[in-house]
Amino acid sequence: MDKQILLPTDFSKNALNAVRYALDLYADQQCDFHFLNIYQVDDYSLDNDMMVPEPGERAFESAKARSEKQFEKLMEILKLHPKNSKHTYHTISTFSYLFEAVEDVIAKKDIDIIVMGTKGDTGSRTVIFGTNTINLMERITECPVLAIPVDVRFSPPKELVFPTDYKTPLKRKELSYLIEINKMHGTAIRILHIKEEAELKKAQQSNKELLERIFKETDHSFHTLEGLKVQAGIDAFIESRGSDMVAFLNKKHTFFNSIFSRPLVKELGYHSRIPILALNDYSK
């Protein structure tokens, strides 16, 4: 079955860069790429029930036409990308909220993964992760979200860092995308633990052994750092090794949230340089 990939776009430079990264990451896979643009209608707001435009109204049709015209330009730009017979493109223009639109496409197209830029055309240089990206990484539970910084150019990822505190048992399904990336590009999985106590507790040791079994057929290794706060430790590890990607499991109220709470996003240094893969907690 072809992989179904969703690419939200506002036609910004960052969004285009994420598209190119996705095309190269899945270059050898049969894929349907679904490009999604949420357009705005002048003088209308979704927050005002009395002012929601309807199809057929001049303002609505004009906004939709602008979105479709931008898609035509995007398709022309992508013709400059190496042609790939394994890839099929689909475009979707809609007037909606981003989260609701994404959820709708996920359900209708059975999306496997979302790939998007870290911020849109209105993002300032001082804000590395835009609100839209953070919201999707935190709220989407049906599929992983891969966020691509604007300055990242694709090269086959040699090393992916997976930080964990070993406090919760993980499932093979939750980590299937790490194994998939390994199979596609020979990417080594580096499992990183930031040590908080002298020894792992019994449950933590058991969860570590579970990870060993899950990654048994995958190039992987375990690493431990101590004397550093979590975000500083991840940053130092990635910086020292030149890692290509980092993955977090989005488990509610646990490790992912401590990293991706909005204040900590601004404190992390590495995320401006490498893609971040937000995985799902299928126990929710």
TrEMBL record:
<feature type="domain" description="UspA">
    <location>
        <begin position="3"/>
        <end position="149"/>
    </location>
</feature>
<dbReference type="InterPro" id="IPR006015">
    <property type="entry name" value="Universal_stress_UspA"/>
</dbReference>
<dbReference type="Pfam" id="PF00582">
    <property type="entry name" value="Usp"/>
</dbReference>
<dbReference type="InterPro" id="IPR006016">
    <property type="entry name" value="UspA"/>
</dbReference>
<comment type="similarity">
    <text>Belongs to the universal stress protein A family.</text>
</comment>
<protein>
    <recommendedName>
        <fullName>UspA domain-containing protein</fullName>
    </recommendedName>
</protein>
